[in-house]
Amino acid sequence: MNAVLPKMIQSTMWMSTLLIVAVIAAIASAYDPMDFAKGNEIELQLRNKRFSNVVADVKMTEVEQNVDKRLIRPIICPPRETSNIELCCGNKVYRGTFPYNAQCCGNNYIDTNKKLCCDGVVYPIKSNSNCCGKKTYNSNSQICCGKTIFKQSSNRNLQCCKSKSYDPTKSICCNGTVTHVNGRLLSCCGHTGYEISKYSCLGNGTLVLKPKNTVTEVCNGVLIDYTTNMCCDGVSRARPDALTICCRTKTFNSSNQVCCNGTVHNYTGNIKTCCHKSLIDTNKYVCCDGKIISRPINSVGNINYCYRPLILAGGRANTLQSYSPYFTCCGDNLLTNYTTQLCCVNKLYNLDPNSLYDSYCCGDKIYSLNTNSKKQQICCEDKLYTFEKNSKNQGSCCGSAFYNQYKQSCCNNTIIKGSNINCCGNRGYNLDTEVCCAGKIFKHDKVPANRCCNPPSSIIIY
Question: What are the pLDDT digits (tens) for 34-54?
Answer without folding.
Answer: 443 344 444 334 334 333 333
